[in-house]
């Protein structure tokens, strides 16, 4: 038994991760009152039955299968033709130049891209700045690669004009030797967008200290009315060799089942990511890669409709949560996440999410997955059947009523 | 620039890895004589156009897509229903009991299983015994996890009654502090099978020294006439918590394009592998997982026919290679690999494989990918169109004639 390895794995536990709820120990949970009936809703991820994949994706997959060996066995960084196709579309989207040969890799999901990018940049002992709160895997990746996570606060409840990143703390982090800054934009779990000024300052600070930046832009196409999105990779102030951008079609486009993501930026790091991919899983599924042709090539009006339907769900759920008077929250600006803060309860956040599941058939992700201090918040992904999501929010409110101090 | 990280990545280079040949620098290559015409053959992997996937797999994939969200978002260790389905079939195949809940994980290819298993067992500084020659990723995985590879010789050319593992060297390795033994059976690249005695002795030695074993059985269904296969996991002498077995349908079954593998064994390590999968790529592609239903459920006679077709190709290619008088080789006993030793040439092995590609349109993998000392061998995967493979072997012989000392 290697105790150091055992300790490392104890820090990357997946018991509370989205989708793993079925493996939780629920022996200690005692419910107050009866079950609250209603259609079960799993808010831990989007419902691809309510919001289906881009039309035609399965047909493109089938075409890929019929291409045969050439599609099954691509280069580790992905099929050359598909890299060209997608790099061009992402160059347009981000307003940058992406060379499909040097600066682009196709990965098994954005999770795959994150893992490869972190494994290519983090050496043991390296300090990595991580936003609090941010995507739960970010800190686990730092742990796995034996780095040291340095938290930078996001004061998302204190402002509405920017994401609320503490830039002074970020500069202190760089000044104290942080080599790499990893963050999601829009932020997961809060759904806030970094303002143009915040992105400009992040780029300038990184350049000043020679730090690297990985930005996870998974939800950057689903921008709600009145909001603008700024691409870090399009800032001229930062050395492009110090930036990796990650995207993928798993969320808004509902293609998670195909396990597709991409990373673009630094040629040196893309090269390392490919070497690492060669020993991690060889390549993103060959036939699946073909599906990327449908990405950024959706039918006319499809994306607009999808965004407005999500905005309508957002508005309804937020109205209900606010009307209850129990929650503090900030309106989602992009993506499908909401991160409500709950009042003091008689039970812990870990017990609360188990109670929600057992008593109200509602699955949410505890705030502690996004930073150990978020013991009073939970995340939902509201990409769900609209009526079912409303019913589930009503049940959450009832459970909070029942268990609050 | 982190020079230690740069050095690590220099050791896991993928330039000569199968399928990456298009990225090689060929500026320094000078050809003797004309191009040798013939149908191009890529022996770096099997040709899934010549040997197609198990019939019906695409239909099962499409059914998986139609299942929707439940199939797209499985537990990280894979869909419960499919784990049950496959664990049962593999219990029958191996003659062991595999609990689908505790001892089984579905991974993105067997490469994914190897990475997760190694990442779950290797801590920095750990000594890991690696067979020479063996699958090229094995040593790279030890490098990536900061372990120390301890080679154990396979004298595959000196015997025909067993694989030829130097068991004395293996015991010395365990005695010197090696914690883990990783090997492929049948051996990649030589295609030899470990004898019942060898497997028994490996199990006994591992148990004696408390060492762990990972056995990669990727090609263990494609056993040629007159050969028997022994499953290490079925040896009663070794603590089952110290064994992980890896398999998958990418080779004989031609399902590589779906990126599917499995690992089974130690509940503790399967648990760690799932935690690691959560940050590496979340899960094997959800819809792809469904395809595992076709595995070990092939149409009557399909597997027998596939094996006999491969045996016929093997026999033809070996006859030609032997008739030339240039090569030393051992007859493949299982799987589709051949690992001929070539005579002394005027060019290096690295130049030789580039010349083969440029002058004869034949792609092979240099022996050095399987151990730095194998500068006089190359690997081919003969799962190819039969006639094309024969033509390619004739061209290889001509190139050897041209360049030999």
UniProtKB/TrEMBL annotation, chains A, B:
By its UniProt entry, which Gene3D superfamilies does this protein fall under?
Aspartate Aminotransferase, domain 1, Type I PLP-dependent aspartate aminotransferase-like (Major domain)
Name all Aminotransferase class I/classII large domain ranges.
71-396
What GO molecular function annotation could you give as one example from this UniProt entry? pyridoxal phosphate binding
The question of whether Metal-binding is a record keyword is answered with no
Keyword Transferase applies: yes
One annotated GO biological process:
amino acid metabolic process
Query: What cofactor is this protein dependent on?
Result: pyridoxal 5'-phosphate
Q: Which InterPro entries match?
A: Aminotransferase_I/II_large, AspAT/PAT-like, PyrdxlP-dep_Trfase, PyrdxlP-dep_Trfase_major, PyrdxlP-dep_Trfase_small
Q: Which UniProt keywords apply?
A: Aminotransferase, Pyridoxal phosphate, Transferase
Per the record, the similarity remark reads: Belongs to the class-I pyridoxal-phosphate-dependent aminotransferase family.
Listed name of the protein: Aminotransferase class I/II-fold pyridoxal phosphate-dependent enzyme
User: Which organism is the protein's source?
Assistant: Siminovitchia acidinfaciens
